[in-house]
Design a protein that fits this description.
alpha/beta; six-stranded mixed sheet; elongated; 149 residues; 2 helices; Tetrahydropterin Synthase, Chain A
Length: 149
């Protein structure tokens, strides 16, 4: 059986700020992100398996991506962990979904981080093929397994 690529798309809202950046993105701002997750594998051939003919059930892929990325990052404010904490009001009510990451929260770094998280949760016979993280209607960053072997 041939390898087949399967893609599931997700959307979420997220705010970020780029520490030390020399343009407007140094300020807190948000995006409507689009995340396309493509996995690769061979469709199941076991006639007794209820997933016969599937590389992965779209519902299973959805669960993995929601639990590792979307549920955490949707409506969150993501900041570099080096951001001075005194630079904003840390009101629990306003900053309940504040995530500090050990990198600059650019689309490039986020898509790489998401790839690591998703890869760890995929079934053994399924491999992450690529991710596309769309930040705006005309801008996106991509991660491909073949570029990271």
């Amino acid at each position: 059986m041939a390898n087949i690529r399967v893609t599931k798309e997700f959307t979420f809202e997220m705010a970020h700020a780029l520490l030390g950046y020399d343009g407007s993105c140094k300020y807190v701002h948000g995006h409507s992100y689009g995340l396309s997750v493509t996995v690769i594998g061979k469709p199941i051939e076991d006639a007794t398996n209820p997933k016969l003919g599937m590389v992965i059930d779209f519902g299973d892929l959805k669960k993995i991506v929601k639990e590792t990325v979307v549920d955490d990052f949707d409506h969150a404010l993501v900041l570099n962990s080096e951001t001075p904490k005194a630079s904003f009001n840390q009101s629990k009510e306003i900053f309940d979904k504040l995530i500090f990451v050990d990198f600059q929260p650019t689309s490039e770094n986020l898509v790489s981080d998401f790839a690591k998280k998703i890869s760890k949760k995929l079934p053994e016979h399924i491999k992450l093929f690529s991710l596309r993280l769309r930040e705006t209607a005309t801008s996106y960053a991509e991660w491909f397994a073949t570029d990271n072997e």
